[in-house]
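Hi everyone,

Forwarding the result from last night's run.
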Amino acid sequence: MRLLLFDFGKTTGENFLDLLKALEQVDGLKRLRLGSIEPNLLKDEIIGLAAESQVIMPHFHIPLQSGSDEVLSLMKRKYSTDLFAKRVHRIREIVPHAFIGVDVIAGTNGETETLFRESYDFINSLEISQLHAFTYSERSGTQALKIPWKVDVEERKHRTQKYINLSEKKLRSFYEKHLGTHQTVLLESQKHGETMSGFTENYIKVETPFNETLINELTGVKLKSILPNGNVAVNLAE
């Protein structure tokens, strides 16, 4: 189960932390993943709960959009790169094995070459696991249209590809750090040729020979090697 957090409780006075604690008590709920939590909403208490929980997975998806404070300001974001870096460092401090996915937009209005390089270097400096890179596209009625500097469409695609390349490097590094470890995987029903796949608690995608009895079952595995398709081959626990 994936739970998205935007401004939960803002109008009702409810507490998101209390909601998470209540969800932990739901019978039959084995895995809960938190998605799209902006850094200003990702409080230390939530990170701490994830570190101790048997239900909330060590997997954080945090929108950044740009690693340049000037661009973040143009986007009217409610956080800075300094705050974002502090959140990543805090996660690594108390949940060192966590998967950290980050959203970033390439080529938004106002993003000069210098600001893009600033963003790229900032993201490269962070110990994250993967980037979800999006190419900026105009949408009617948005504030971004009022920003005068426009990035050429081909340049937007070029910048997006740079982020994708960086993401692939960081994801492989994250996978390599966990080779040889024992993990619990939820294997899925889809069959890919003679194999099936699933994800560890910290969102490493693994692959193993198809076995119908393992579908939708939590299964112990040992991470063995990275396959040509980028997934991780495993040995089933005996």
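Residues 2-177 form a domain with the pyruvate-formate lyase- activating enzyme fold (CATH 3.80.30.20).

Cheers,
N.
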